[in-house]
Design brief:
The chain has one domain: 3-Layer(aba) Sandwich (Rossmann fold). 32% of the residues lie in helices and 23% in strands. It has six helices and six strands. Strands 1, 2, 3, 4, 5 and 6 form a six-stranded mixed β-sheet that branches. The longest helix has 12 residues.
Length: 150
């Protein structure tokens, strides 16, 4: 199955999950989306950006319409997917609304229902096939199984 992995990572922790997943799926293509200029956001700027998705994002190389399965990997900020990922979803909603997709969330707790619902709403009600959460503690100890997403 032709697979696209789309990842956003502000601090690098989520990027580690993406690297592990792409090693498990070496045939998959990977897009690493980011703010213009690839700037890492500091804490205060991150707080400001939580509720506003950027209009321009970088790192989109592959069009999601070419793929059968999409795996989205991002942190959860204030109960929602990071703004860059929400912008990616909004910009590609038409091409993603009928696709099979899975979510990998990196967050401080295991509560991901609101974030998964936000993705589904952006994609016109299309529900994720699989959702995996890697909390901070799990990420440090390897207490998650990325094979569940494959």
């Amino acid at each position: 199955m032709k697979t696209l992995i789309v990842c956003y990572s502000n601090s690098g922790n989520t990027a580690k999950l993406c690297a592990e997943l792409s090693a498990l799926l070496p045939e998959a293509d990977v897009d690493t989306v980011n703010y213009p200029g690839g700037k890492r956001l500091g804490f205060l700027r991150s707080l400001f950006k939580i509720f506003s998705a950027p209009k321009i994002i970088e790192g989109v190389i592959h069009g999601p319409s070419e793929y059968e399965r999409i795996i989205l990997i991002c942190p959860i900020w204030a109960g929602l997917p990071a703004p860059v990922m929400r912008a990616y979803l909004a910009q590609n909603a038409e091409n993603l609304k009928d696709k099979e997709y899975s979510l990998v969330f990196r967050c401080g707790s295991s509560e991901t229902v609101r974030a998964a619902a936000a993705v589904s709403n952006i994609l016109g009600g299309n529900l994720a096939v699989k959702v995996l959460t890697a909390t901070g503690k799990q990420a440090k100890t390897g207490g998650y199984n990325l094979r569940e997403i494959i």
